[in-house]
Design goal:
Organism: Myxococcus llanfairpwllgwyngyllgogerychwyrndrobwllllantysiliogogogochensis
Strand order of the largest sheet: 26-29-24-23-20-19-25-28-27
Helix content: 10-25%
Protein name: DUF4139 domain-containing protein
Shape: flat
Structural class: alpha+beta
Strand content: 25-35%
Distance between the termini: 92 Å
Number of strands: 29
Pfam families: DUF4139, DUF4140
Number of helices: 10
InterPro entries: CHP02231 (IPR011935), DUF4139 (IPR037291), DUF4140 (IPR025554)
């Protein structure tokens, strides 16, 4: 089999999992198209049912007929043992040489270090002062210092060379140790692989064919983040979307085209099949696409196979001059059961039943066997006696009607739906238990139409029963989901490794990915995307290693509208806050996530950004602005009013002073709240706004903000260095019947 190298070209990270695309370059082998090729190096966390292959570039006749998953074992490169032995001997010789030279330098250092000036001994009685030889002493000291400096430098070089030589010796010994076959087997790595079956005509060598292989892996996720850069004036800015990606798929993404998506990778996107509702006579449902009825006489296809099997077991049991049609008959016409290899009885043939249901053949059926019921023709049936088989045997024994008469009647037999992953019965119990002779109205007339379940249309999970399985051979059966791994583990592995343990380790690594905490204020895409899905392509190729750590990559620049506003609520806080109105002008949504705000050249803060559909506007807080001064003064008056003076008038005077100490023009929104009358008391209690300068208006909350009853807002434009006073007066009129007993006490 031809092994074709491939490279990872593109990865789309979904909310949970990733979709990877590999590109393989296919060359002709001896001027012919290879029948099968194998693509190695796929990760162990790959989902086998997601393999897809296509011809990206190539001749028109080239096509992919089939694809199946398998495993691949990669060993380290072979080691030249004699060469490594020679290298080890050379390294040991270098170590010995360096050690010898180092010992020589050490001896020289000790000898030169002992050089000291000496003087002749003088007697104390005859001591005569003399001139000291300073020149000789200085010359000796200079010589000793020079030699010691040179020898110490040489010693340092030899010590470094000695360390390098010992490291080389360790490396050579490790390579010799790894050259052992047992150690090499322990270092083998197991990968998944894909085998492609090709067909087509040869093409010129100058134009190689490109094959793309697509597969899904579960160990990846991403969350959105943003980067907002604003000038000091907050007049304009840029918003960039980033993606924090983490993956533990078992393969590094190096230089790939990355894209992130909010869609669920395992969600089925099949078009629903709508059934029509008709008023009138009942009509049979239309046949489902992708389904074909079992052919009549299916067991006759295996008559020769059964004959050969029985002949190999007991050659005397079947004469050569007698025709064999799936069973053996004695001279009296009674059917005998042939014991195949293994002692299991052969089944009764289905040919006679197929002819009675509507087969075009007019040959007489073999002698019936009332005690034995034919098997069910449904795919995946387990054989045995069914009521349909009993009805067929009873009809034959009584000779009720001919096959031509049966075609003119209708037989209504309900059927049971097939369960997922196993076999099911196609024919259910008969509606009427009486199957005797009688009139035409009492006789069932035709075998019902087989209606498949969804499991029989899932071709990826169907397997053809082998001919040795007498109960369901020649039929497709749904394969249980847990059998897939065993089939893959035993498909093409030629080395004694425990595939299931490798898969279990890979699943544990994938599950550990969800225990890694997410960055602050991040929201999973499936929670913030709501009812829509979007895909974002990264501008450049990127690298994401498989290390279970978060990696932040730039995605794209978002064209948004930014307008600076300052918000102040003097009744709560006598400070102004910087805000930016962000308008989404893109055709795709901006998902919820943290925003890193940079003001000028200085990092300011990180704020949460809610989900913004296309065309929506949100307010992003940027902290306190100390250059805007705010002061609020209040005054309260209480008086009586009304025609007879029986009402209490509560007058509130509000004065807000604003001062702009910034060097640019700003827009300030000052929020106040007017008392709200409870529901049902509008006729008794009244709130009148008597004097407001300048005019305020009812504040409209942005999407996502909680509306406040009775909220009013001034929108004031202040020039640099300008100050302005805002005034408002409102009166609350309360009748005497609504006052508290004992007087109007206020705090």
């Amino acid at each position: 089999m031809l092994v074709v190298p491939s490279i990872l070209d593109a990865v789309t990270v979904h909310a949970e999992g990733a979709l990877c695309t590999r590109i393989a370059t296919l060359q002709l082998v001896e001027d012919r198209v290879p029948t099968e090729i194998q693509l190695n190096g796929l990760p162990m966390s790959l989902r086998p049912g997601t393999l897809r292959a296509a011809i990206r570039q190539g001749p028109p006749g080239l096509s992919i007929r089939a694809i199946r998953p398998t495993f691949d074992v990669q060993l380290p490169p072979e080691v030249d043992v004699p060469g490594e032995h020679r290298a080890l001997e050379e390294a040991l010789a270098r170590v010995s040489d360096v050690v010898a030279r180092l010992e020589g330098v050490q001896r020289e250092l000790q000898s030169i270090g002992k050089l000291k000036p000496t003087f002749a001994p003088q007697k104390k009685d005859a001591y005569v002062p003399h001139e000291a030889p300073l020149a000789a002493l200085l010359a000796l000291t200079s010589f000793v210092d020079t030699e010691l400096t040179s020898l110490n430098a040489r010693r340092l070089e030899l010590e470094q060379a000695h360390r390098d030589a010992e490291a080389d010796v360790r490396l050579r010994r490790q390579r010799l140790h790894e050259a052992s076959s047992s150690v090499r087997g322990e270092r083998a790595r197991v990968y998944r692989a894909a085998v492609l079956t090709l067909s087509g005509n040869p093409w010129p060598r100058e134009t190689p064919a490109l094959i793309s292989l697509e597969y899904a892996v579960p160990g990846a996720r991403w969350v959105p983040t943003y980067d907002l850069r604003l000038p000091r004036t907050l007049e304009e800015g840029t918003l960039r979307m980033r993606a924090s990606i983490i993956q533990r798929t078992g393969e590094d993404w190096t230089g790939v085209k990355l894209a992130v998506s909010t869609a669920a990778l395992d969600r089925k996107a099949e078009v629903p099949e709508l059934k029509a509702l008709r008023i009138g006579r009942r009509q049979p449902p239309p046949p489902r696409s992708g389904w074909r009825e079992p052919p009549p006489g299916l067991d006759e296809l295996f008559a020769g196979y059964d004959t050969l099997r029985q002949a190999a077991t007991s050659p005397q049991s079947a004469p050569r001059d007698e025709p064999v049609s799936g069973g053996l008959y004695d001279s009296s016409g009674m059917e005998k059961e042939a014991a195949p290899k293994g002692g299991r009885a052969l089944p009764k043939p289905m040919a006679s039943k197929a002819r009675s249901v509507g087969s075009a053949s007019s040959a007489p059926p073999p002698p019936p066997a009332p005690a034995a019921a034919p098997r069910n023709m449904a795919p995946g049936s387990r054989g045995g006696s069914t009521q349909a088989g009993e009805f067929e045997s009873l009809r034959r024994s009584r000779g009720s009607v001919a096959p031509a008469e049966m075609d003119d009647e209708q037989l209504d037999m309900p059927q049971d739906a097939e369960e997922e992953g196993g076999s099911s019965r196609v024919y259910a119990d008969m509606a009427d238990g009486s199957l005797g002779g009688g009139g035409a109205q009492d006789r069932p007339s035709a075998v019902p139409r087989l209606e498949p379940s969804d499991s029989l249309l899932d071709y990826d999970r169907l397997s053809l029963t082998p001919a040795d399985d007498l109960d369901g051979r020649g039929r497709l059966r749904p394969r249980p989901s847990h059998v897939t791994r065993e089939i893959l583990a035993l498909s093409a592995v030629q080395i004694q490794v425990n595939i299931l343990s490798f898969i279990a380790v890979s699943e544990q690594e994938v599950n550990s990915l969800w225990r890694v905490p997410t960055p602050t204020w991040t929201v999973p895409p499936r929670e913030s995307a709501m009812h829509f899905d979007a895909r974002f392509d990264l501008e450049t190729r990127a690298d994401v290693p498989s290390d279970a750590a978060w990696h932040t990559l730039p995605v794209l620049s978002v064209p948004v509208g930014l307008s600076a506003e300052y918000v102040c609520v003097p009744s709560v806080e006598s400070r102004a806050f910087r805000t930016v109105r962000v308008e989404n002008r893109t055709p795709y949504p901006l998902l919820a996530g943290p925003v890193d705000v940079t003001l000028g050249d200085e990092f300011l803060m990180t704020s949460p950004l809610p989900t913004m559909p296309p065309g929506s506007t949100q307010r992003l807080g940027l902290g306190v602005e100390e250059s805007i001064k705010v002061a609020r003064n209040t005054r309260f008056d209480e008086a009586t009013g009304g025609i007879f003076g029986g009402a209490t008038m509560l007058t509130h005077h509000i004065s807000v002073e604003l001062a702009n100490r910034m060097s640019n023009r700003i827009l300030v929104e000052v929020c106040e709240r007017v008392p709200a009358v409870p529901t049902g008391f509008e006729k008794d209690i009244k709130v009148e706004e008597t004097e407001v300068a300048p005019v305020w208006q009812k504040r409209t909350p942005l999407p996502g903000e909680v509306p406040v009853e009775g909220e009013r807002a001034w929108r004031v434009v202040l020039q640099p260095g300008e100050a302005q006073t805002l005034k408002a007066t409102w009166t609350v009129k309360i009748p005497a019947s609504k006052m508290l007993g004992g007087g109007n006490r206020r705090t």
